[in-house]
Amino acid sequence: MSLQLPAALARRLEHKPYIQNTTGLSGAGVLMFDDCVLKTAPDDQTAAREARMMAWLEGKLPVPRVLEYCEQDGTAFLLMSRLEGEMSCEDYYMERPQLLCKLLAEGLKALWQVDIRDCPCRFSLDDRLLLAEDNVRHGRCEVHRVEPDTYGPGGFRDPEDLLRWLKDHRPPVDEVLSHGDFCLPNVFFRGEQVSGYLDLGFCAAADRYQDIALCYRSLLHNADGTYGPVYPDVRPDDLFRALGMPPDWEKVRYYRLLDELF
Ligand SMILES: Nc1ncnc2c1ncn2[C@@H]1O[C@H](COP(=O)(O)OP(=O)(O)O)[C@@H](O)[C@H]1O
Ligand SMILES: [Mg+2]
């Protein structure tokens, strides 16, 4: 193992075979062992929050169990149990759009049923906008790997312009437990059940549409060829049918745009 592991982890993981998982786009290192997973990331607030939320959610929702969390030399190490099942964007589910939307809707609703009164993390819209502002100020906003109509003719001039618009058009907030990055690779299914949620660094009390908007976008792009195969039978609008609620397109747009600054 080329990684310099903290002593507690080295003892546990030495000589155990693993494979590297390159699914995620965050730049985190993910090593898959047969019964556990090691995620390494810069030691910023996100990694610590992920471990805290994972521990808080134990027994409330299917999430990996935190086996060890530590920080060393600017790197955060999260060793967690390995979830059963597979990513909701695997062929099996993408080829069964009705089941896919039904389970994604169940996954969202299960989050909304968690009592957030003692939730250790809260991301109000103001908090998110402050983080977005920090990203803009430090030039951390992607301007190429974004939706094609975000910037340029008919869109925003640049991230500063988008941030200004987001601050001026805050929609009313409807607070629930939000996964924070509800995209298909972060939600696991097993058979006809949601078997787990992953990647919880932004999980917090936040607006319901934070997750709906990202789920909708992820359905769209996992089906339209952005990440590989095209699945013509997947219709992202069916998510709302499965949720049994009419879409608020203004909010879908708002939260998709907000995510462009992360
Ligand atoms: N505990 C786990 N159990 C099973 N698979 C996992 C686990 N943690 C990560 N993975 C796999 O690794 C991928 C990337 O991990 P993730 O935490 O989502 O990183 P990123 O922040 O880079 O998206 C996931 O989509 C999943 O396929
Ligand atoms: Mg992920």
Describe the structure.
The protein is of the alpha+beta class and 262 residues long. It has two domains: 7-81, 2-Layer Sandwich (Phosphorylase Kinase, domain 1); 86-259, Aminoglycoside 3'-phosphotransferase, Chain: A, domain 2. It is 37% helix and 18% strand. It has helices at residues 7-13, 45-57, 91-94, 97-112, 125-137, 159-168, 208-223, 238-243, 249-259, and strands spanning 18-20, 29-33, 36-42, 66-72, 75-81, 86-87, 175-178, 187-190, 193-197, 204-207. Strands 1-2-3-5-4 form a five-stranded antiparallel β-sheet, with helices on one face. A three-stranded antiparallel β-sheet has the order 6-8-9, with helices on one face. It has a two-stranded antiparallel sheet with strand order 7-10. Strand 1 and strand 2 form a beta hairpin. The protein is globular. It starts with 6 loop residues before the first helix and ends with a helix. The structure holds adenosine-5'-diphosphate (ADP) and magnesium ion. Adenosine-5'-diphosphate binds at residues 21, 23-26, 28, 30, 37, 39, 64, 80, 82-83, 87, 185-186, 198-199.
Instruction: Just name the CATH architecture of the largest domain.
Output: Alpha-Beta Complex
Number of helical segments with 4 or more residues: 9
Strand order, sheet with most strands: 1-2-3-5-4
In total, how many domains does the architecture comprise?
A: 2
Shape, per Cα inertia axes: globular
Can you tell me the CATH class of the largest domain?
Alpha Beta
Name given to the CATH homologous superfamily of the largest domain: Aminoglycoside phosphotransferase (APH), C-terminal lobe
Q: Output the CATH topology of the largest domain.
A: Aminoglycoside 3'-phosphotransferase, Chain: A, domain 2
Helix-strand pattern, N to C?
HEEEHEEEHHHHEEEEHHH
Structural class: alpha+beta
Count all strands and give the number: 10
Low-confidence stretches: none
